[in-house]
Amino acid sequence: MTSNLIIDLMQIIMLTATTVVVMVTAAFKRDHAVVCGLTVFGLFASLMTFLLIKPVLPFAATELLMIDEYSLFFSNLIIVGAIAVALLAYPYFRNHSAQNEEFYILLLTATLGAVVLACSNHFVAFLLGVEILGISLYAMIAYTVHDTSSAKFPLEAGIKYLILSALASAITLFGIALVYAFLGTMGFDEIPAALEAAGEPGPVFIIGVLMIVAGAAFKLSLVPFHIWTPDVYEGAPVPVTAYLATVSKAAMLAVTLRLLLASNALEFNAVTAVLTVMAAASMIVGNLLAVMQENTKRLLAYSSIAHLGYLMVVVVAAAQVENALSVEATSFYMLAYFIMSLAGFAVISAISSSVKELDQLSDFRGLFWRNTWLSSVLIIVLFSLAGIPLTAGFIGKFYIFSIGVEGELWFLLTILIIGSAIGLYYYLRLIYTMMQPPESISNDPAAMQIPAGVQVVLVTMTIAIIYLGVYPAPMINTLQSLSGAF
Asked: Residue 51's closest CA among 21, 6, 85, 11?
């Protein structure tokens, strides 16, 4: 162990220490506020680590982890998401669950797994991150199983995610085994040299890579591995749904992009063909099925499927354009989607009462007249999701179009345009519902005081959406440094 190694691993060490402290505290003192406060403080301390201690970058922390600008961007994004979810979770679980302290232990372990994923440069670290994240999510999704006033089907959602996630992990592990059997190496950046030494890649290697891509596609909710998404989004508590939509996807996207670029897997036509089909199908299926939804959590679930399909356009284009542009575009769009999703689920959390979650479209009727502030935030979020100018979503869409044009992906760009037009319809439909006259504003949760933690998330994410849409240059300059990782 060297000082540089300890410094570069400090974020992971801080997350682990926070988990242990919260676990011990919860064991000796059952206090929801104290445990939540320790969780937020520990996450914030982990986030500030590299601002106070300058790491040596890039640095290979053992063969398993690579600490560089790319991994730090995604790990910091993951921790910011975990802080936001903790702030949303405090008022939610105070109303919907008797024993709340264990939730924050699960939140911290899931975040630790997500950070390990973002830093992974080896299949062993990849599997460790996936399982630490996944096992924590099983319990988080079903956490309110004994409370009938919260999410509708938490146990069903948890079991569905457990079974399908286990299947995806098995497929991924089998794919890793095939790649290792053919190459004899498990490091991402060692694969190109091993391929060159092995000669022409055989079907064993190609099938192995495709199985790994299939496992990653499950976590990213890409068609045809999307079937769990709407049911789990609807069945899980709102803060957990926000975590699934943001942190889980950001971690898996980070490691998937690193694997594909570092291993030169996109040079194989079979891989790009499969990714192209999944991108097109996700954009079509996600947007078409979103039109049919009457539940906002399910609507956002299908919307997330479509948005990950948009992101896959950039990943496919990476086979034709420079890695720098692909990494920059993917990172910016993931950042934009991240903050839009957190803000959207924060609004659902804010209007929900202590009696039940209010997530039906009809629950949003007249929201503009009942609570102008909340409806304004949601309108900004929906405009950004639709790609309206002066929002982060517009800049993200512009990135995707630019990369798609440079890569000459005319088929995918056509599907993207059609999907965006369909998406505009169901986003405007929700806005129209909010503008309808309310039936009553008496005893309306949306007219009551919003918890302070939820307000922090709403204000922060709304400012970020507008700032990135109006003045994205500083963030773009930051993201341009990420390509050095490849």
From this structure: 11
Q: Count of CB atoms within 10 A of residue 203's CB?
A: 10
Q: 105 or 56, which is more confident?
A: 105
CB count within 10 Å of CB 247 equals: 31
359: closest CA among 407, 314, 295?
A: 295
Cβ neighbours for 74, distance < 8 A, ≥ 6 positions apart: 118, 250, 251, 253, 254, 331, 334
User: What amino acid occupies position 87?
Assistant: L
Query: pTM, whole model, 2 decimals?
Result: 0.93
Name residue, tokens 């956490």: 143
Spatial distance between the Cα atoms of 428 and 176, rounded to a whole number of angstroms: 44
> φ and ψ at 205, to 5 degrees?
-65, -45
Q: Which domain holds residue 403?
A: 281-486
How would you label 2-23 residue by residue, b for 16+ Cβ within 10 Å and e otherwise? eeebebbbbbbebbbebbebbb
- Between CA 112 and CA 106 the distance in angstroms is 10
- The per-residue DSSP string of 92-112 comes to HHHHH-S--HHHHHHHHHHHH
Ramachandran quadrant class, 295 (left: phi over 0; alpha: psi -120 to 50; beta: rest): beta
Structural domain tally of the chain? 1
DSSP H stretches of helix in 292-440: 296-317, 323-351, 367-370, 372-386, 392-406, 410-435
Gap between the Cα atoms of 249 and 30, Å rounded: 32
- Is residue 223 within 8 A of residue 191, CB to CB? The reply is no
10 Å CB burial of residue 443 (0-12, 13-18, 19+) is exposed
Helix (H, G, I), strand (E, B) or coil at 168: helix
Is residue 459 included in any domain, yes or no? yes
Residue 376 domain-assigned (yes or no): yes
> In this predicted model, what pLDDT tens digit does every residue of 364-415 receive, in sequence order?
888 888 888 888 999 999 999 998 999 999 999 998 998 888 888 889 999 9
Classify residue 360 by its DSSP letter. Answer: B
Beta bridge partners of residue 122, listed in sequence order: 187
Whether 97 is covered by a domain: the verdict is no
With respect to residue 431, please indicate whether it lies within any of the assigned structural domains: yes
